[in-house]
Write a structure and sequence with these properties.
The chain is an alpha+beta fold. It has 2 domains: 88 residues, Winged helix-like DNA-binding domain superfamily/Winged helix DNA-binding domain (Arc Repressor Mutant, subunit A), CATH 1.10.10.10; 120 residues, no CATH class. Helix content is 48%, strand content 18%. The protein has 11 helices and 11 strands. A 3-stranded antiparallel β-sheet has the order 1-3-2. It has a two-stranded antiparallel sheet with strand order 4-5. A hairpin with a 2-residue loop joins strand 6 and strand 7. The radius of gyration is 20 Å and the shape is globular.
Amino acid sequence: MDAHADHHLARVAGAIGEPARARMLCSLLDGHARTATELSVVAEVSASTASAHLARLKDDKLVIQLAQGKHRYYQLTDPDVAAALEALLVVAGLPRQQFKPNTPDRLRHARTCYDHMAGTVAVQLHDHFTQQGWLQPADDKEYALSATGEQQFARLGLDVQAMRKLRRRFACPCLDWSERRPHLGGALGAALLQLALKRGWVEQDLDSRALSVPPKGQRQMLAAFGLSTA
């Protein structure tokens, strides 16, 4: 064992062991990102105190900060941190807290995020694409398509090669405002929204960012990607 491993362990344990920081970490176990303000409420501390706690958690690589427009969110660094916290919760006998979004249902289900789709449906599609291995991390800010993914998207009539030539990111995770988990952005995300509109899977509201998703459209969209509505 590394001669300094015990010191590293003690430092990380100290970071987790402070009650306010422990509450912050436990609230992030559901996979949803949160703002410093939200975490200060969870931890029952002031904004300045929350900022200091988050700096400590970042220094000890327990959380990372995500930028989405003018907003800053925090989430657990990786699955290893989540697994360690889960194990500690088992030992402590404490239940996990659940994320409770306050976004209106109409916007939460489906909406536009600039030129791509966001909301519950979009996050579900993103998760499916990654679980199936169609999308693979190229780095921390972009996705690459696997051979299977390229075939699947081409089957739907998307010109993947043309998208790669555009002067923008091809495919990237975009943190969802309501779900606080990623949906698909970039040229591929924009092309998927246009495909959904063209095929009538979703309908654009004229006076808001909301997307209407008729039951038949949702069934057809999910079926096109091998997903069930059940």
